Amino acid sequence: MSDPILGLAMLGLIIVVIMLGFPTAFTLMGLGMMFGFAAFYDPSQSWAANKVFTLMVQRTFGGMTNDVLLSIPLFVLMGYVMERGALVDKMFYSIQLAFRRVPASLAVATLIVCTFWGIASGLVGAVVVLMGVIAMKPMLNAGYDTRLAAGVITAGGTLGILIPPSVMIIVYAAVAGQSVVKLYAAAMVPGFFLAFLYLVYIIGWALINPKVAPKLPPEQLVVPIPATIRFLRENYSSNMLVATFKALLSPAKLLNAPVDAKLSFGKIFKNVLAALTPFLLVAVTMWGVWWYVMIHQQSEKDAQNVPVATQVAKASTSAAEPVEEALVAIDATSNSIKSKETEEDAPLVALDAAAGDDPIEAGAVAEANNGPPENFELYFGLTCVLFGLLLIYYYIKLDEEQFEILKLLIESVMPLGVLTLLVLAVILLGITTATESAAVGALGAFILALQAGTLDFERTKQAVFLTAKTTSMVCWLFVGSALFSAVFTILGGQSIIEKWVLMLDLTPIQFMLLSQAIIFFLGWPLEWTEIIVIFVPIFLPLLAHFNIDPLLWGTLVFVNLQAAFLSPPVAMSAFYLKGVSPPGVTLNQIFAGMMPYMFIVIACMVFMYIWPGMTLWLPKFLYGG
Fold first, then answer.
1. In the predicted model, is pLDDT for residue 384 greater than 90?
2. Mean pLDDT to the nearest integer, 407-436
């Protein structure tokens, strides 16, 4: 049954067939069935008795009963509802006004919107197409270099697949048998750090060569001021914080103002809340940090200082642990269905892994909690002082232009920001599972789109249809990958690759470089889905041998796969953008604009390896270990 040469031929053939343009999921299933039929072939039995058919049913059932995958259609629906609801136009306008005096302000605003919108939707194609429509033409009209404009849209649009909530991370968790919430926590800081490196590159290029991003004309730097705001400044104070409070305490002037400047008492009160929003955001954030670190963690530490029997009884309901669905192996089935031969012949380490990394297990005792970090009160106090000084400076400078920009940001960014933070917070803090959080996010997306008045029946139908299409693709991909990986292991392909790697006698850093380099170069001809479901499982069993943290390695893979969207010839971001770009923009110009961001991705990976705490600090802080 075992034939390693057939296994390696199977692996090489899948790359060739996918590059020829055949659908990945059905190619995986077809090759799995053909090579599996050969592996299980017994001349003494009828061809219909071949065990590959039983294996196909087992792997399909295991993939369809994987609870972790339930969150994918809900997160995808959340993204498509927001994309079809057209909520990004006003956001881009307000952020562009806020950064109008920054070098390459249009490109900076585009990157920020791409990052923020990508986090909220998690859809690379939708973000690139939307920002191509909204931002590409204004940047070109302002005289921006085509490479700069194309690069910032394509690179920024891919960040949504990295920064949680990300469908790619859910797919990886299901393939690798890892905890979704821990992977989310691990990817959070590197994702924002990569976005920061993109920002540094854009501003640095504009400072070094101002011709690539000319300054906007003066008329585009002027913020349009409504008559009500001008009336506040003229009759109350030039400082909008003072003016809004004076108007609240003495509203007679506004209530009797001309029609175009007149405000009701309710709108006066809304202006006060708008002026106080920066203070409220800082106060709520700092209070949340203080509560979680000093009160919540201390209570967890006190709860663990009780007899062990009590700890065991309370461990599964501890609020300090992330709540998560059981990570079922992709091929998992009931004992009554799975055959003994399959268990013996195809022990897939990656795909069949038990959920040992799952934070909650029956009867498990929570890991020791050491309470608040040392010197936390000092650093917290210094942070509060710093934020206080920044708030004082901001409110001193709060004139009518800044106040109007603040109101536009509150209207366009804050609702989506609150929804995104809520979805992430309930996952990371263990309040809900990833699936429940995705359901909350989808419901919130419908509410935001309905409130904006941009979602009708036709757009809702399109969002649901696209969600069903994407989910079906993912499901068939998992079925095909599970069958392909099982047959590959049965033929001995996994074993021969492991023996080859071990024969090289690599150090952990050499193995890390080799594995990430292979994934990087695979990203040139292949998409991230093929890489994760086909090639990543080959490396996973070797991580324990080299004593490499699977969270760190997995997060490096997430960052590495950003290059799959930015590397020709299969750079999907380039083709998405080309489809909505003005006629003068060529594919070669888009490719040229994307290439520097690939080197930035490599630089980010170097930082992550040199400083593993960037990746591991947050999951360790939240969940211990």
1. yes
2. 83
